[in-house]
Amino acid sequence: MTWSIIARDKTTGQIGIAVATRFFAVGARVPYIAAGIGGIATQALVNPYYGIDGLKLLREGRTPADIVAALIAADDGRETRQLHIMDAKGRIAAHTGSECIDWCGHVEGNGFSIAGNMLTGAAVLNETAKSYEANEALPFAQRLLAAMKAGEAAGGDKRGKQSAALLIHGEEEWSALDLRVDDHTDPLGEIERLERVSREFWVHFRPFLPTRKNPAGTTDRAVIDAAIAATPVGKS
Length: 236
What we know:
Glutamine Phosphoribosylpyrophosphate, subunit 1, domain 1
C-alpha cells in the first residue's frame, strides 16, 4: 500500500526518507532515521517495532542484513510485512513478505533503496530510481520529492493517494526537515509546497539552533535576523 525511498546525500551526509501511500498519516509509522547512521522504512502491514528496534541495532553497529534477519525472525507476521534499511555506508537490505500484495518489490542503487507494495506495477519503483539518479544536481529534499513524483506519475499506489512524508536528518538527533501530509487529495504536491515554504525561513534559521558541538546555539536575535535577511528567499 506504500512506496518509499531511503537515500544518503553524498555532499552533506544527510539521510532522508520520502514515502507516499493511499492510507492515513504514513509519516507517523513508516520512516525512521538515526542521524549519521542509517534509515529504516517499515511498510505493508506496518510493524512499528521494526523501526524502533531496528534503529537500536543500527546504533549498535549491526549491518542492515543482520538487522533485517533479526527483526523478521522475531515476528510471526513477517510474511505480511515489507522492510528496507540503508546505513550511512550505503549497505542495503530488504524484506518483502510472501503475503504482501502485488505489485511489490525492492530496487537499490548507489546510495539509495526503494521499496513498495500494492503498486500499479514495477514501473513505480523503476521510475522513482531513474528520477533520483537523473537529478543529482537538485538539493537533497527536492531530489527525493522529484523521485517520488516520478513514481506517482508511473502509477503509484494502485488504490490512489492520501498521505505522504519527507524526513531528513543531518548530524543532529533532531531532524533537519520533517514534513507530513496526513490526509490530502494530492499529498506529494502538498509536501512539495511545504518544502518550498521551508526555504523561506526554516532552513535559514535552522543553523542557529543548539547542536552537540554548540549546546547553546546562537541566541543573539540581531545576528539571526541579519543572516536570514541576507539570504535570498526560497534558496536552500
